[in-house]
Amino acid sequence: MNRIDTLFQQKKNNVLSVYFTAGHPELNSTASILGELEASGVEMVEIGMPFSDPLADGPVIQDSSSKALKNGMTLKLLFDQLKDIRKDVKIPLLLMGYINPVLQYGVENFCKKCRETGIDGVILPDLPMDIYEESFRKCFEDNGVHFIFLITPQTSDERIRMIDSISGGFIYMVSSAATTGAKSTIAEKQIEYFNRVKALNLKNPLVIGFGISNHETFASACRYANGAIIGSAFVKMLDKATDMKSDIRKFVKEVLG
Amino acid sequence: MKHSPDERGFFGKFGGAYIPEMLQANIEELRENYLRIMNSENFQQQFHKLMKDYVGRPSPLYYASRLSQHYGTNIYLKREDLNHTGSHKVNNTIGQILLAKELGKSRIIAETGAGQHGVATATVCALMGLQCVVYMGETDVKRQMPNVLRMQMLGATVVPAMSGNRTLKDAGNEALRDWISNPVDTYYLIGSVVGPHPFPDMVARFQSIISEEIRWQLKEQTGNGLPDYVLACIGGGSNAMGAFYHFIEDPSVKLVAVEAAGLGVDSGETAASIAKGTEGVIQGARTMLMQTDDGQIIEPYSISAGLDYPGIGPAHAHLHDIGREIVIDATDKEALDAAFQLTRLEGIIPALESAHALAGLAKMKFKSDDVVVVNISGRGDKDMDTYIKYMSK
Ligand SMILES: Cc1ncc(COP(=O)(O)O)c(C=O)c1O
After folding, report:
1. Per the CB < 8 Å rule, is B181 touching A130?
2. Confidence class of residue B11 from pLDDT cuts 50, 70 and 90?
3. Using CB atoms, which residue from A75, A99, A179 is nearest to B181?
4. How many angstroms does the Cα of residue A114 sit away from the middle of ligand 1?
5. In the predicted model, what is the mean pLDDT of residues B221-230?
6. pLDDT digits (tens, 9 = 90+) for A191-245
């Protein structure tokens, strides 16, 4: 069974997921960050595939992506780095990035490689639903890899239901109309939207991302969804980390409260 | 028409709308309304009135006799440089601002390279009393300063884009991020036939007035509305698409697009997206773009800020793919020389972008009775610094 499904079967609340960009801060820090996140109690990880032109990202992830690319990160190298990851890391792992590098790698190859490596899900914000269904869905499903869709405050109920019907794993609920980036609070209007989506009783679990940065925002997001994702705040911390292991543990501990 | 995209915005295998969910509602609103609004009588009336009284259309089609003599053929210049604001860009901004108003948007954002699209956007925003924010790569802010000052005088806020090479692509990325963060009141007034569907089709339709006029003007002047060649420079491809549009279904008319080779197509410092590009997705469209094997977009280079873009409009990628469009290229130096040649032979100082189209003339073989139309997409005022430096070398 896909590890994402297992996770949400066992745990319905307060699932903590973390995003970081592969190849940042160091080219070869990917595997050790993953190990440390799991050891700290993080339950799911999105590994960012850096892209030169990350449209949906704010300054922090733009910066980590360009640093990672400067360090020499590529999709090929990432799969090499993750080759033996399943010997150590048991939590669900996802790849998150943009469609163009995946197209150049070849979608079939990419899905196959995800299966071989033990990648459970993929998030490609700029692959639209219709093109996914037409040309990609079969390949992902044949390889047992969940394709995760985003929804936003502008997504209509009807479209959310459609997304729910074709996705697996979970639905990524973007917290507000914004690019990625840390915010320190959750506003009234966002709560209305969270409640609206919650009331739809979707078949897939909901995970809130974008703007989740600390214990407070994590805990409030978890009141409306099965879990939440921290990205920019974690990436920023890595940038300044002096002792990566202990800094990661400290960060996660603070978020879990 | 054959060259319109399919329902999902594909021209053959190119185009589409590869956009994050955050832009979905905005793009859908546009897609569902643009043709209805554009084709309404009220819109057409306003558009054509502004084109005539405000922009100064039709722009002349001028028989350039000394240039013709030099190349031993018959060269006509389509004078988009004489439009209000100094380039073809205003055809599109007038169209889109009317559309934005109809959609009830109050805040306009745009990207700009040479600053011509930024100026044309700031101009129509002043005209309509709408708030205007223009993203411009920091590199371009420096090399097109007169246009930055014009935008500011027109009341626009110019925001320097600090990512990548700090040129046109990076300005486009910032504009898209702004749109993601302001999905309700904001309209993204895109400057070329690029981006997600329906932008490439919409901008092509607004710019198609160029070829519509060429046809009747040429008929008036020569008795035949069909030239043998139409030449235009190509950054994103809006002036070229405008100049080609009404000739696409006339196979006797050869459509020639001139890309910016920068220091040379194989120099590593180029913006020739067809010559050096492969298929991929850039800023919401599947098209030809310059990229690494890993799918990272390669930073382009051209002396011309308006052509300094690593992709190309999807309709051009398609027309090239099916053999309907010939794509050649010109280096910085060839463009500079062509600009000086036109200036000295005809007394017209062209924009550096348009100078690439002129440089294309030397690369083609024309017969003495051929009729060749070159689209002069803009005037050279904004490039005087570059020209003066070149002159004193
Ligand atoms: C005068 C002029 N010509 C051409 C271009 C290139 O754009 P496009 O290829 O969309 O016509 C620009 C862009 O800034 C321009 O200012």
Report:
1. no
2. very high
3. A179
4. 42
5. 98
6. 999 999 999 999 999 999 999 999 999 999 999 999 999 999 999 999 999 999 9
- Here the CATH number for the domain that contains residue A60 is 3.20.20.70
* CB count in 10 Å sphere of residue A41: 13
Secondary structure letter of residue B290 according to DSSP:
-
B282: amino acid identity, one letter: I
Per-residue pLDDT tens over the stretch A122-181: 999 999 999 999 999 999 999 999 999 999 999 999 999 999 999 999 999 999 988 998
What pLDDT digit, counting tens, does each position of B38-73 carry?
999 999 999 999 999 999 999 999 999 999 999 999
When CB atoms are compared, the residue of A53, A74, A127 closest to B297 is: A53
Number of domains in chain A: 1
Check if B297 contacts A (Cβ < 8 Å).
yes
C-alpha span between A112 and A134 (Å, rounded): 18
By residue range, what is the domain housing residue A100?
3-256
Q: Answer whether A202's CB lies under 8 Å from A160's CB.
A: yes
Report the 10 Å Cβ neighbour count for B269. Answer: 17
CA atoms of B159 and B134, how far apart (whole Å): 6
* Cβ–Cβ under 8 Å, residues A215 and A255: yes
A174 touches chain B (CB under 8 A): yes
B175 to chain A, any CB pair closer than 8 A? The answer is no
Domains of chain B and any CATH numbers: 18-50+89-203 (3.40.50.1100), 58-86+208-391 (3.40.50.1100)
Candidates B273, B237, B248, B250; CA nearest to B353 is: B237
Q: What mean pLDDT value characterizes chain B?
A: 97
| Chain B residues near residue A159 by CB distance under 8 angstroms | 24
For residue range A8-66, list pLDDT tens digits in order. 999 999 999 999 999 999 999 999 999 999 999 999 999 999 999 999 999 999 999 99
Rounded Cα distance between B97 and B138, Å, is 26
* pLDDT in the model for residue B2: 57
Edge-first strand order for the sheet with B61-63 is B61-63, B74-79, B371-376, B229-233, B254-262, B325-331
Distance B277 CA to ligand 1 centre (A): 19
C-alpha dihedral sign at B359, B364, B365, B370 = negative
- Say whether residue A107 is in contact with chain B using an 8 A CB cutoff: no
- CA distances A38 to A45, A82, A92, Å, are 9, 15, 10
Distance from Cα B258 to the centre of ligand 1, integer Å? 12
Chain A residue numbers touching B8 (CB-CB < 8 A): 130
Q: Where are the beta strands (DSSP E) in chain B?
A: 10-11, 14-15, 61-63, 74-79, 107-112, 131-137, 157-161, 186-188, 229-233, 254-262, 278-282, 285-289, 325-331, 371-376
Q: Is B235 in the pocket of ligand 1 (CB under 6 A)?
A: yes
Interface of A with B in 26-85 (CB under 8 A): 51-53, 55-56, 58, 62, 66, 69, 74-76
**Model confidence, pTM:** 0.97
A64 closest CA partner among B170, B163, B48: B163
How many CB atoms neighbour CB A56 within 10 A?
22
SS3 B316: helix
Put the strands of the sheet holding A44-48 in their side by side order: A146-147, A121-123, A93-96, A44-48, A15-21, A227-230, A206-209, A171-174, A150-151
Rounded CA-CA distance B328/B258 in Å is 5
Complex-level ipTM beyond the 0.85 threshold: yes
Residue B1 has pLDDT above 60, yes or no: no
